[in-house]
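From the shared-data thread, chain only:
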Amino acid sequence: MGKEKVRWGLIGPGRIAESFAQGIAHVDEAQFYAVASSNIERAREFGARYSAQKMYGSYEEMLADPEVDAVYIATPHRFHYDNIKLCLQAGKAVLCEKPITVNSKESSELFALAREKKLFLMEALWSRFLPVYDDVREWLDSSKIGRIRLINATFGVNLPYDSSDRWYNPELAGGALLDMGIYPLAVTQWILNENPESFNVEACLSDTGVDELTVAVLKYKSGVIAQMNAGFVAEASNELIIYGAKGSITIHSCFWASTQATLETDNKKLTVTRPFKASGFEYEIEAATLSILDGDLECKGISQEDTASTMKVMDEMRARIGLVYPFEK
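Structure, as tokens:
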């Protein structure tokens, strides 16, 4: 790009965007430059709180600003496809919250558009960039626990039932799989560097028709079986445990946002703690920013192929549990 910093714009100044704004302040090569919302007062309030230079009352206005190099999208995932397409057509690099889209048809179209326009596009799945995951990767690569045989991951919270909440809203692509189940799927993919060859899945659907609890068993060609569950109906341990022939690795609760992991072999335990500099989002922001500055079209930390593969698995899981969103029909 020929620049020392990437100037970021933000679409959707809500709860998740707070973590982005807190994290980007700790990335030397990045600047939080602009924020856009359909509600200008919301944009102004958010922008003032995090020292953005520009606040816009529409996405189109911000995308017309030539100073904006890249855009972080933090809207509900029902809107990701339209938001990403708008940004790419405006010539902006994109980092979009997970899941990158609702289904693989949408994500495939966007990856093709990004390649056509030679623009960076990345799914923001922050877990894979957290510092403690570097320790886990070193333990795996040096075969500290031997051959991996079993992975167990849980993501469970106990939410009061509220049919009006985004999590339960089919029009916003609610449900546990897309919002929570993506984490065990994507982290297991990162651990094994492969995608499942087969799986079984069961789910409980809420009165609104979305999955409030999804449980799956996945089998991999390497001989690994992964067990995962995601849901709103009960608090789970929220750990991810990797069992090998010579020991185990635990990414402690909450594994998708963890600062701590334990290696256990031969009755010996080693626990490492890696605190965040800020919100934890700074690591994926740094990875995306450096990739953009290097002229890359995707990030090695979570490639477009990784994202596309996970989207296909979630598509098939939804097909098997009978979850089709109204806007997909």
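The mean pLDDT is 97.
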